[in-house]
Amino acid sequence: MNLEDIAKRAGVSRSTVSRVINGEEYVSDKTRKKVLAVIDEVGFSPNPAGRMLVTQRTCVIGIVIPYPLQYVFSGDDPYYYTTVLQAITDVSYGRDYATLLWIGNAREDDERFYQRILRNRLMDGLVIVASVIGEELLLRHLLKNGTPFTLVGRPLNYLDQISFATVDNVSAAEQAVTHLIKAGRTRIGIITGEFDNVDAQERWQGYKNALATAQIPEDPELMIEAKFTRMRGYHGMKQLLDKNIDGLFASSDLIGIGAMDAIHEAGLRVPEDIAIVGFDDFPVAAQSSPPLTTIRQSVVEKAKVATEILLDMLDGKVSGPKQVILPTQLVIRQTCGYKI
Fold this sequence. Notes:
This protein is α/β, with parallel strands linked by helices. It has three domains: 3-54, Orthogonal Bundle (434 Repressor (Amino-terminal Domain)); 60-168 and 299-327, Rossmann fold (3-Layer(aba) Sandwich), CATH 3.40.50; 169-297, Rossmann fold (3-Layer(aba) Sandwich), CATH 3.40.50. It is built from 14 helices and twelve strands. The strands form two sheets. Strands 2-1-3-4-5-11 form a six-stranded parallel beta sheet, with helices on both faces. A six-stranded mixed beta sheet has the order 7-6-8-9-10-12, with helices on both faces. The chain is elongated, with a radius of gyration of 24 Å. The protein starts with a helix and ends in a 9-residue tail after the last strand. 42% of the residues are buried.
């Protein structure tokens, strides 16, 4: 069926049907419901190409993950990116948007990757997952072109111009390390994520803030840069075992689990010899042995809020940058050896 057929059945003009399909104003609720009822009855689906010409929209949003495929879907990290992608697609599909996934390529430099995204004309807007150093080219061009986008995480640059959803990594990490200090730990190490990641940098800053507040001198030998993976946590802990640490802040749960693997392998005990606090509260944290004390952040909520902000921008419901800081919570289990 075409628009004329729908109009005839509903007893309205073709232009009214077109306005209803394209979500335009100047149609009464009664008329809109009548047209939608006919559309539903006959199973009508508008021609997407024709609809795009009229609305100048594709109802497609891009999801940008600036890491290679083997890192994003690594068996070592089955939680973060799959959880984020599910949350973004749930919100998008619920509002009749399709998604287009952009994943980085280890054989392609950042500039080429971002230029391919910028040249694409199939997307109404973008959700960028992970704030990383090097994405400035993409952000600069998106801002210049007026392309709607949001970030899952805080941007490193253009903070006053960009919409995003994140958590306060600095204060959350500071709370985690302060908890270790209250447990009597004085030689506390940290295994971070990669420093091209803003979350990793912020959690490192929170670690340093807690030490400074407690007047514990920083020791560069106790600070290990890694990745947010179990294997990197294991190797990072191996480097710290001969540094006589009695506490560890792991910048992710997977890092913390990997660190426990190395501690147990060395014949040491958690928390008696080395206390640990992680970050994320993924299911693996409660399932580890012993269960991991950690900072709980809602990765699902962070991704959903970022997506909702983008779709509201596309629908004209948001003007100007919208920035949401979601709460975190210290979840005390058995790896810290201390209860509040």
